[in-house]
Amino acid sequence: MILEKILDPQKYISHHLNHLQIDLCNFKIVPPGTCSSHFWILNIDSILFSFILGSFFLSIFYIVGRSITQSVPGKMQAFIELIFEFISTNVNSMYQGKNALIAPLSLTVFIWVFLMNVMDLVPIDLFPFVSEKLFKLPAMRIVPSADINITLSMSFGVLILILFYTIKMKGFIGFLKELTLQPFNHPIFFIFNLILEFVSLLSKPISLGLRLFGNMYAGEMIFILIAGLLPWWSQCLLSVPWAIFHILIISLQAFIFMVLTIVYLSMASQSHEN
Predict the structure, then answer these.
(1) 274 belongs to the catalytic site
(2) How does pLDDT run across 1-11, given as a tens digit for each residue?
(3) Which of 47, 136, 137, 235 is the most exposed place for a label (fewest CB within 10 A)?
(4) The pTM is what?
(5) How many Å apart are CA 103 and CA 86, to the nearest integer?
(6) What are phi and psi of 11, to 5 degrees?
């Protein structure tokens, strides 16, 4: 149990870094630390909280959208209108072109990633303790953006959109020419160009996902270290200031993920004109 693991900082920290995993082959929960070589393993806690946060975001915006008024808006409507204005301003300044998908996509990315990051501010022992006491679950992590599988899945979703709009705007032949005739427009550099462009294309989603994962994992780790290594009377002296500073980090990381998504899609949509 968590209260017992506090007596051993190493076990305490290790416990908080384990995911609640399910083996798809046997459809059963896997004990922490026993499935490192198994491919068909899902971090079910990350998927669950991602789904819950996404559903929460969509439900709130849907309810407010159905009750929107032209008169004096309520506090929730005014707040959402500010978010819409913020997203619209950034999209118009960075995306050169017209695409009905970009603004809704940017809004979804920003809010969803922000909500995932906000979970890092929840007391780290709360959900693991409740899940262990009530549901007898061996582990529980509640910050989806601190799971590299989630961040890379989102970033590779952006890659699919990049490929789709690149091929849509330039055609498949134009896309192949871009991969093989740039930056050196000569047949002798065909293989060299292909390697360079493939690495450049693949580096976009990888860097996008790793940046978000690295920052959120580091923030979560600091909370765990504070709780696991320091006496209880000194934890507030460090955890509260770090939580306040972390609010800036979680907001900035959501904004960066959104901005890079817009920039990459803008490059994919406009490169055919160059």
Answers:
(1) no
(2) 444 455 677 88
(3) 136
(4) 0.89
(5) 11
(6) -65, -35
